Amino acid sequence: MITLESTWTSAGQQRHFRDLLTALSFPGRIVPLPAEDRSESAHVSMVACLADAGSTLADPHALLSSRTWGLVAATPTAVDRAAFILLDGRRPADATLQPQRGTLEEPEGGATLIISVESLGAGPLHLRARGPGIATEHTWSVAGLDPRWLVQRAAWIDYPRGVDVILCDAQRIVAIPRTTILTWES
Amino acid sequence: MSVAFLTDLAAAPANDVVELGNRLAQELTVEAVQVPRSGLAMVAMRDAVFAEPFHLGEIPVATAAVQVTAADGRQASGGAALISDREDLVIATAICSAVFEARLPGWEAVQTLVATGAAQRQRIAASRAAVRQQTRVDFSELTTPETP
Fold first, then answer.
1. Is A72 contained in some domain?
2. Within its chain, how far is the Cα of A102 from the centroid?
3. Do the chains contact at B36 and A2, CB–CB below 8 Å?
């Protein structure tokens, strides 16, 4: 009766979640989403597999359509109280944004930032990652990410408190958990 | 959409509702407004004395919300939440509610099913009333006549 894009089906969301686990296990690695699940942009796919009616979601850059909000069914929430925050990486970082960073007793309360960028794997911004999940160091390039987001990320992390970041282009993701040490040059 | 409409439609034979929903969907463009879901939900209540919250238990719940577009371009929204674990049934109910609300082609068939469900509810209500009548207790027989 209803044909839903695979992004919104249980099977599609489970595939995306497996890909996200892979990305989190290997920070900095560019992970393509399955070819059969490319009906939506990667940032929508990440929102779909992470958030549901019991989640709090902030979309300060209005990246989600009203239809997507209806399908996710998450509660629209202010940035400082949201578990998931969707951001446009091309916009300059806003220093007034203060995501949840968790507490020493409950560091899992830190927000997950889903940042939409133009392209992963090519671009003027060159990132270098070190830390758990990376043998020595891992480098990759990004287009459409204002480096001030990376400055903000560093300011938000006071391990174990902090935020976790997922960079998304059209169909690929890169995870940068709070344990990852990032340097960059453009 | 009135609660009575959905209650009557929910009382109609489930397979008939699904069949009608499938038939209507062939003539319409059906788009999900919310992802149809089915699962268990806790029934939250408060006790009558201290108003303390407690959970009575779990019930199966299925929900759906759709937007339908007819061939002539008319649109309507419909939704349903049923005590059921059948997603096909709740989607069909949501489609029927949208079609009936906007009087889109096929609404008469929905009305017929609603009437069937209403009749079924009346039969159940009458049956339960008969059972209650059989167990009626006349407490006046337990009173002691007052002595002058």
1. yes
2. 17
3. yes
